[in-house]
Amino acid sequence: MKVDSLYNFKLNYMAKLYTKKKAEEQELLPSKTTINFILSYSKALKMVKVGRLTFENLSN
Length: 60
Known about the structure:
Layout: H1 3-19, H2 32-44, E1 45-50, E2 53-58
Antiparallel strand pairs: 1-2
């Protein structure tokens, strides 16, 4: 196969792959425990920027 035809083949394959519609989409519903964990983590995370450096501090 020539390089150009291989490139076109891959391009067409990717276009078909990414334009297909899913038969059924799942709705993701996180649990209350997961949401509470993420909220607690984000409240405890403090970021301090000093010059070009960024320090992350997680205070429980």
